[in-house]
Amino acid sequence: MTKAAIAPPGIALPAAEPALRAEPSPIREFWTRLKARRTAMVGLVIVVALILMAIFADGIAPYDPIATDWGAIRSPPSWAHPFGTDEVGHDVLSRIVFGARASLGAGLTSVALAVALGLPFGLLAGYAGGMVDLAIMRLTDALLAIPFLILAIALAAFLGPSLTNAMVAIGLSATSTFVRLTRAQVQAVAAEEFVEAARAVGNPPWRIAIRHIVPNIVPAILVQATLTIAAAIIAEASLSFLGLGQQPPEPSWGSMLNVAKNFLEQAPWMAIWPGASIFLAVLAFNLLGDGLRDALDPRQRT
Amino acid sequence: MRPEPADRYPLLSVRNLSKHYPLRSWWGGKSAVFRAVQDVSFDIRPGETLGLVGESGSGKSTIGRAVTMLNPPSAGTVAFEGTDLAKLSAGEMRRMRARIQMVFQDPYAALNPRMSIGDYVAEPFRLHRPAMARGERRDEVEGLLARVGLDPRFARRYPHQFSGGQRQRICIARAIALKPSFIVADEPIAALDVSIQAQVVNLLQDLQDELGISYLFISHDLRMVRYLCQRVAVLWHGRVVELAEADALYEDPRHPYTRRLLSAVPVPNPVEERARLRAASLLPPADPDAIGGLVEVAPGHWVADTRYS
Amino acid sequence: MVPESPKPLLDVRDLGVAFDSEGGAVHAVNGVSYTLKEGETLGIVGESGSGKSVHVLAMLGLIPRPPGRITGGQVLFAGRDLLRLPERDLRKVRGGQIGFVFQDPMSSLNPGMTVAAQIIEPLRIHLGLDGRAARARARDLLDLVRIPNAGARLDQYPHEFSGGQRQRVMIAIGLSCRPKLLIADEATTALDVTVQAEIIGLVQELKREIGMAIIWITHDLGVVAGIADTVQVMYAGRILERGPVDDLFRDPRSAYTLGLLRSLPDLSRGRAGRRRLHQIEGAPPDMRHPPPGDPFAARNAYATSRCLTEAPPLAQAPGAAPGHLVAAWYDLPARLAAEEAAR
Description:
The structure holds three protein chains of three kinds.
Chain A: H1 3-6, H2 26-35, H3 38-55, H4 57-60, H5 92-128, H6 130-144, H7 148-159, H8 163-190, H9 193-200, H10 205-241, H11 253-260, H12 269-296
Helix pairs in contact in A: 2-12, 3-5, 3-12, 5-6, 5-8, 5-10, 5-12, 6-8, 7-8, 8-10, 9-10, 10-11, 10-12, 11-12
Chain B: E1 12-24, E2 30-44, E3 49-53, H1 60-67, E4 75-80, E5 83-84, H2 90-96, E6 100-103, H3 117-128, H4 134-147, H5 164-175, E7 182-186, H6 194-211, E8 214-219, H7 222-228, E9 231-236, E10 239-245, H8 246-251, H9 256-263, H10 270-279, E11 294-298, E12 301-304
Parallel strand pairs in B: 3-8, 3-9, 6-7, 7-8
Antiparallel strand pairs in B: 1-2, 1-4, 4-5, 9-10, 10-12, 11-12
Helix pairs in contact in B: 3-4, 3-5, 4-5, 5-6
Chain C: E1 10-21, E2 24-36, E3 41-45, H1 52-59, E4 68-77, E5 80-81, H2 87-93, E6 98-101, H3 105-108, H4 115-127, H5 131-144, H6 150-153, H7 163-175, E7 181-185, H8 193-210, E8 213-218, H9 221-227, E9 230-235, E10 238-244, H10 245-250, H11 255-263, H12 305-309, E11 315-316, E12 325-326, H13 332-342
Parallel strand pairs in C: 3-8, 3-9, 6-7, 7-8
Antiparallel strand pairs in C: 1-2, 1-4, 4-5, 9-10, 10-12, 11-12
């Protein structure tokens, strides 16, 4: 039967069914929800600003971050050096700007590595089950038994001090979290009826995993990744502070703190600015992560 | 002992199907088995709708998943167009799914929330007609959406933008994409509002008339089963207690459980319904342990042998 | 209006409920007014989103606020406005003078408490009974809802009861304080049809024994046909039709009621006389943007142009039994007669 058949003569049917009204795409809808969360937007703005700062560090920084100026050692903030200078006359502002590359780069790269390793193994464990699951999970259990930072320090010490090795160490240490999360998410999604419907229509197992399960676990992974970036930034700072990350004279917020600790009384600005930067970056990623969690929560959907 | 129709070659032939689940005791040993379905046999003819009715726990959904091999049976054979499905390899079974489809109860759960409905309906073509050109596939999807009464422009939308009735139409569009000869519909209207149920039932009926699809219609809605099904099997505690032409079963129910079930259906007419309630000295439940094999009491009317009658 | 010889037990006046959501306010209940006499059984029929459950939850103060809010109206129960009662007084009414039974007996019962403890709780709160008296009353209540061997079963946990028995326990709790009104919200929807029949039979018997008024909320026209004195059909947050049960089923005046009745297949009709099922086209309106007129107009073949622009009031249907009210601008019997003549 057509619509016309039920329309009384002479009356135009209103635009009928609710779904016909222009509805936003899922991504736009998600963006609307995220925008409504002010703290998340604050986090997002800071994150974007920090990333832009890292990318365009050459244009922003007033000085070469590794150029030493023996005429201006440990000089307090001034018009020439708004954040002051350090014990060898590096401009602190320039080092903060360039240090964002190391800190954010370490955060993003190590988490990318953790997701790249954790997602497939978690998928395998959650979807294949049986002995594969058992083996993967016992291994991650063992890794999870060691505190994140301790493991990262041990791995970085083993690999040797460099920023790249610090990233690898942090990434490997964070992997087990993602294996575990992915596995739990996969198991929850795999029990849903649309996965059975996918089998019923003739999907092979690999296609069910890629097309039907993975898209549904992405939100949870994204939230966890954002929060883990914050933890990774702290980890990078800690490794650099211990001399296991960025090597001098290249700047990183953690290594700047490492040096600054010797001059806390004479030149507190050397410690304040990198400390504040770490604080700000970690706060921003955490705010964003919390906002993403709320905006992606399917329970709040209509 | 076999309730076989003599006149036409069956499309689906289920014989002695059983599904058992081991019950594990707390120390991990297998102590007993739960018999969800026991020794069920039935045929479905081409173009026929067989109703499978029963209450919760009767095993009707288990049978639906067993005949489609989504949850294969523990014992028995499921012959589809002469092929024993249990003997197929995983790959062969996947190819067979082009001919056997399923419609699920909960259209909210059966759609992938992160797949557009166009992609969802197109999936059977991607899987079973990989050579099909993109444009042709899009035309097919639009035709299918229109066929089930949805605007083809909806193809780019996502499931949460649709009502329950519309979602069930989307599921049906996907199920008929490859023109299957058999669809298992597991409580397809149970989650829908009353005013939407008739739309979906009429659609299923129209599709059968057009495409000659056979249905296994699993439902607890005895009114709708009578309307839609040529033959009906009544399940109780995992066994078929009665199997007959719908008219014979509803007008002359022989098994005590069938009578009990039919007498419990409310009638939307105040005078009749009050009379039914007054008369409702519900027959006492029969003893499930007393269910025996099926006996043909009239042509095509099979009733489980019980110790009392 | 309905001749109200006994003073109404419940008098709902122009009740409105809305839920705030990101896409705008959802107007779940719009200007619902009705009365319920002592001892009357009112069947409320509607689909999901009709407001049939929400308006009852709202008047008992059981909708979460926010996002829910009452946009207006009064609910007079035994002379007091429930909507303006302090929460403490409302708690005394809820489970005391008004008992209720919900759809899912499993999630309504606390799995970690014995059945006795859950029946005794309201008895202590509302009736102030001490331990022994409350326990004795709990036993009587299980007897009342025909649970065999009540004394022994009191100390069992909900999972030891079958689905139908759990709903009996819920009814026992609902009746525990001798309420004047029992509200059953889809109380048999989750149950098998044979169990539903038992529960309905039980409620009928209890009504004869206790004499409480009942509001029975359901989507099943068959269920209300047998137990209701008055039937009220709700759609999109409004009452479209209300009347004495026999009159409403025999002579429906709302196209929606008629559509629902016609869309049900007949259990006694064989395949030979089979016609295509009558289907109501379209879907209910989006309650974030309720249509200005009759909410059913867009799906109604008998709608007039006025239906699309102006919401009809609920008023006595011309030529129908007294108290048979309909909200419609069109005259359904006349339209049906014209249709018949045209054939």
